[in-house]
Q: What sequence folds into this?
């Protein structure tokens, strides 16, 4: 058994992990108790990393050797690496020769390592001579970048995680931290426990698990953030709560901002934001830090946390700047517990920005538009020049490909056919581009289906390099096992392409990529050392940091210049900012309405966000049935008042349509939303939620609906909001098929079933799990649900039965063609003598079977049912004890278990929570379910039951 320290590949918290491995198989993972980001804690996603990286899973989902597709629409066939790289280099070189360097584009990922990013950036801008290189970090953090640069002068979050323990007021805007950054939320819980007087304000259109902790919840209307922040500043000015001395000494432009906010009264903001004026005033008082402070005394420090609710907007830069203005106006920056702290969405979005891996940036936070910066980079790289014109950003790049302007696309470690907005345009771009390379670890992504050339890359547990988290902390990523099959490191693939292109573009000249070493780690370190040198004298100077220091001293924050003994925890404590005059800047921006407000045609506001236990497009988390326990199937969440008005009931299917596309999804009542608002998780792409349109085209998941409109300053698209209409879907023929399958077959069966989804107007396909890991290995199952106007051809049902092993002689069957009923069930005799349901298929007009799903998934005995299992009835012949929805996926504890136990608990909410956890142990592993447990406890104390607080 081997152990290696590394870093989690999910969100920007940057948790340290210890990977356990045996030979070529990762067998376990636990939090690193010495890593300063998490001190041993992990969320549900991080704590199950080993289950998504085990060899049986790997061999089913991984891309293991290069594959070339001779023609679009044909199957790809394996080729060797030399042939693959030579083909790629020849096609890119030919495109550059015919159409110029801007006819190619590179689209990368915030999940790449810094070393991967650096080589790709130098390849595009230094060798090819194009700035058409952007990443999915554009969808994540570019508004935060633009906001920081506009106000503070540099893309540098000035706060750190330790500030959570010092803050007296925590202002959370546009972030469901409890689900998106669970380990940060654990630290918030710790801070609140240590300091019950700390005020927490949450601004969010939905009453999330994060909002449940708030002392003041501000359910503002989508897109109204700038008005809220300007109104808070208006109150601060009116009441004399701003720090005029700090403003005079350390800032510029405040007079212009005053002119903008003078009309932003709480009363006017109330109309725009949908909030009570007194709540806006209270938020301003708490934020200013003057609550309970004697005149002239030190302010109570305020820390703000924010994420995609601010960033993913056509006014994202203005939202970020308006929030930072509040910190500057009150001097709430640079001190323990104070500052504007953007929470990074991806594990290395920060590292990508550090190396300049965006279309408008150069290494070490240099600006593309600055000729001195371009000259510095050209000198560092040893080239005559770097291109001056900003490249195409994410949305622009795919629009350019759809328009025929970009001819060749190289996509690495990201899935734009799921994650980008306006999927109709994205998929047209992938189809029209003359040559598409997808460099990917997983063969199952939607984008992989569009690739002319597929290149297998390494992933978590196999890579070596560095990442930077939200608090500017650089951590090592280490390999625990060898790469499977022919997979190569991302930087190795980029380097191999660069070396081939150099022969064509720079014949006879010295290489721009002199990264050599006896091992992959030595080469990666050489890349990092070159990156380190580009930072000399810059705001993120790390010239004093080495890999040896990271090994000896652990993860370190930047800046870490030569001669330093440690990184800097907080920035701007001296009030000096990286601007020409050393002053922070107020950059006034008035509130602008949504780019796509609700209308008579599209009356609902759709917002998107994360699920607690899933990550992005689910190419990794979606392989594990356990992580579907909390949210088992896709759903469109709506306020309960809106359902009857549309003649909908919970579970009904609905068409959800925007100006760009349409999907079908089940509806779910959710009173955490305001009437007129709907919500759907961002993870549900075409790989898991599909079907076909009335025009016969495959449906593309939730991002078929979202808008490509973007912020003019950051070019970040408004993924968070779209105007939609919701109509009941009349699809009387329904299908439910599910089965337990051997672990080495389950994922392959899911992929095969998912490939059938376009044959129905509506379908979704997900894995599910059985017994909790604590009771032994969890069983793996697959579920397919579908609906249609009429019964599909029998061949489709036959294929589904074959994949679920329902075509054998031991299967019970019932068929009634006249009533369009087709039902099948396979039983299994267990070692303890029980007979359980092992697989089922229920199809027909009005076909029901929720109770049969319960029998199968809970592995309840069925020997007394006989052929009653095949009856097309809405109700079970006897009561079936459903265990309910899983709340704690670590220990398989359901809401039913919790409700029953809470009936026996007494005392204060804290005492009842302790009793609950003592009895069921829920929330004692990763802690991701603790916010929901607290809501259920509060509901029990209030005597309202749990149905009103089931917000998932």
A:
């Amino acid at each position: 058994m081997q152990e290696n320290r590394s870093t989690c590949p999910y969100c920007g918290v940057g948790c340290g992990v210890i990977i356990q491995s045996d030979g070529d198989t990762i067998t376990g993972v636990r939090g690193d108790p010495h890593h300063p980001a998490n001190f041993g804690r992990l969320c549900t996603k991080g704590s199950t990393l080993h289950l998504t990286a085990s060899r049986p899973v790997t061999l089913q989902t991984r891309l293991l050797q290069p594959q070339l597709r001779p023609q679009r629409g044909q199957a790809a066939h394996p080729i060797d690496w030399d042939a693959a790289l030579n083909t790629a280099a020849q096609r890119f070189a030919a495109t550059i020769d015919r159409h110029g360097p801007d006819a190619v584009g590179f689209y990368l990922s915030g999940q790449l390592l810094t070393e991967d990013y650096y080589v790709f950036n130098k390849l595009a801008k230094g060798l090819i001579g194009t700035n058409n290189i952007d990443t999915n970090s554009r969808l994540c953090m570019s508004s935060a970048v633009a906001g920081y640069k506009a106000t503070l002068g540099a893309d540098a979050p000035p706060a750190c995680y330790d500030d959570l323990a010092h803050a007296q007021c925590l202002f959370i805007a546009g972030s469901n931290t409890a689900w998106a950054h669970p380990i940060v939320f654990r630290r918030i819980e710790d801070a609140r426990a240590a300091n019950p007087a700390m005020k927490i304000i949450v601004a969010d259109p939905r009453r999330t698990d994060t909002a449940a902790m708030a002392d003041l919840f501000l359910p503002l209307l989508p897109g109204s953030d700038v008005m809220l922040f300007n109104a808070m500043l208006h109150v601060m000015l009116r009441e004399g709560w701003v720090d005029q001395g700090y403003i005079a000494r350390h800032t510029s432009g405040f007079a212009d901002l005053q002119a903008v906010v003078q009309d932003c009264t709480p009363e006017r903001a109330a109309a725009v934001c949908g909030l009570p004026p007194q709540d806006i005033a209270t938020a301003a008082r708490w934020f200013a830090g003057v609550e309970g402070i004697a005149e002239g005394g030190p302010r109570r420090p305020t820390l703000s946390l924010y994420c995609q609710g601010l960033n993913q907007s056509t006014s994202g830069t203005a939202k970020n700047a308006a929030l930072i203005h509040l910190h500057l106006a009150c001097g709430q920056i640079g001190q323990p517990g104070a500052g504007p702290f953007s929470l990074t969405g991806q594990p290395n979005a920060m590292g990508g920005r550090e190396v300049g891996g965006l279309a408008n940036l150069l290494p070490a936070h240099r600006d593309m538009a600055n000729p001195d910066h371009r000259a510095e980079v050209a000198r560092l790289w040893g080239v005559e020049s770097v291109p001056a014109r900003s490249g195409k950003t994410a949305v622009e790049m795919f629009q350019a490909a759809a328009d025929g302007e970009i001819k060749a696309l190289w996509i690495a470690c990201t899935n734009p056919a799921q994650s980008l907005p306006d999927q109709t345009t994205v998929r047209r771009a992938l189809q029209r581009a003359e040559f598409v390379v997808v460099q990917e670890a997983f063969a199952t992504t939607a984008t992989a289906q569009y690739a002319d050339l597929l290149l297998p890359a390494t992933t978590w547990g196999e890579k070596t390099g560095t990442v930077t988290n939200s608090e500017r902390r650089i951590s090592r990523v280490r390999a625990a096992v060898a790469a499977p099959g022919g997979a190569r490191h991302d930087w190795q693939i980029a380097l191999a392409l660069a070396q081939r292109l150099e022969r064509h573009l720079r014949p006879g000249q010295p290489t721009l990529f002199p990264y050599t070493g006896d091992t992959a780690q030595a080469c990666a370190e050489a890349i990092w050392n070159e990156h380190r040198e580009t930072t000399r004298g810059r705001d993120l100077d790390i010239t004093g940091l080495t890999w040896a220091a990271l090994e000896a001293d652990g993860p370190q924050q930047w800046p870490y210049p030569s001669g330093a003994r440690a990184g800097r925890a907080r920035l701007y404590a001296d009030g000096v900012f990286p601007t020409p005059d050393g002053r922070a800047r107020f950059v006034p921006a008035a509130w602008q309405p949504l780019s796509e407000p609700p209308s008579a045609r599209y009356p609902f506001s759709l917002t998107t966000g994360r699920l607690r236990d899933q990550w992005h497009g689910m190419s990794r988390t979606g392989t594990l049935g356990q992580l579907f326990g909390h949210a088992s199937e896709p759903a469109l969440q709506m306020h309960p008042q809106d359902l009857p008005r549309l003649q909908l009931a919970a579970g009904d299917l609905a068409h959800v349509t925007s100006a760009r596309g349409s999907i079908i999804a089940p509806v779910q009542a959710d009173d955490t939303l305001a009437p007129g608002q709907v919500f759907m998780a961002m993870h549900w792409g075409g790989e898991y939620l599909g079907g076909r349109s009335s025009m016969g085209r495959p449906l593309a998941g939730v991002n078929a609906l979202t808008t490509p409109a973007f912020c003019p300053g950051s070019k970040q698209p408004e993924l968070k909001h779209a105007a939609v209409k919701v109509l009941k879907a009349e699809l009387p023929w329904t299908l439910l098929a599910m089965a337990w399958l051997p672990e080495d077959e389950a994922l392959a069966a899911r992929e095969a079933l998912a490939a059938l989804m376009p044959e129905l107007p509506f379908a979704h396909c997900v894995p599910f799990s059985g017994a909790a890991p604590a009771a032994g290995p969890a069983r793996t199952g697959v579920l397919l649900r579908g609906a249609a106007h009429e019964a599909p051809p029998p061949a489709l049902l036959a294929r589904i039965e074959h994949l679920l092993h329902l075509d054998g002689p031991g299967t019970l069957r019932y068929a009634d063609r006249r009533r369009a009923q087709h039902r099948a069930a396979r039983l299994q005799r267990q070692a303890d003598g029980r007979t359980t349901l092992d697989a089922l298929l229920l199809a027909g007009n009005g076909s029901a079977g929720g109770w049969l799903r319960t029998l199968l998934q809970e592995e309840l005995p069925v020997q007394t049912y006989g052929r009653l299992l095949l009856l097309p009835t809405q109700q079970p012949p006897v009561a079936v004890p459903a265990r309910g929805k899983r709340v704690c996926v670590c220990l398989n504890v359901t809401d039913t278990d919790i409700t029953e136990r809470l009936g026996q608990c007494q005392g204060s909410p804290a005492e009842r929570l302790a009793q609950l956890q003592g009895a069921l142990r829920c929330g004692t592993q990763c802690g991701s379910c603790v916010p929901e447990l607290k809501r259920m406890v509060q509901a029990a104390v209030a005597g309202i039951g749990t149905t009103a607080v089931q917000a998932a």
Notes: The chain has a mean pLDDT of 94. Residues 692 and 698 are 4 Å apart (CA to CA).
